[in-house]
Amino acid sequence: MLHHCARAMVKSAMRNNRTSLVYSTEQDISRGEPSIQKGEITAVSAVQQKVTVRLDRKGRGGKSVTVIEGLQIGTKEKDFLMKQLKSKFGTGGALKDEALEIQGDHRDAILIHLGNLGFRPKKAGG
After folding, report:
1. DSSP strands (E only) in 1-126
2. The whole model's pTM is what?
3. Residue 109 belongs to what domain range?
4. pLDDT per residue as tens digits for the range 10-28
5. Please, which residues have CB within 8 angstroms of residue 39's CB and are 6 or more apart in sequence?
6. Which of 41, 70, 113, 117 could form a disulfide with 51 if both were Cys (CB 3.0 to 4.6 A apart)?
């Protein structure tokens, strides 16, 4: 257990650095900027991404699924977007092969939603 003075110094240092202290034997990594690991792809701006929204019925027993492809965002962001869309439309969905699949035909509403987020999605197919 830390002595009371040492605990106060640690809390003071945490407030000044805006970090939360976690036990580590590795080097210090600041939380201010995300570190880029070797081989990691830098994010492309939302406007520059080629995002397509299409309807798919193949291999689903006649049920339709809206597929969003071409999003170049991290998995956490994809999970968050998937959660938003499922909640907004009151339906199910899944992440499969780097594509978001939303149950039902929600192409027009998804185009509007992605446009509001800064993307320039295009409708693919009929």
Report:
1. 52-56, 65-69, 93-96, 99-103, 122-123
2. 0.62
3. 46-123
4. 555 555 555 555 555 666 5
5. none
6. 70
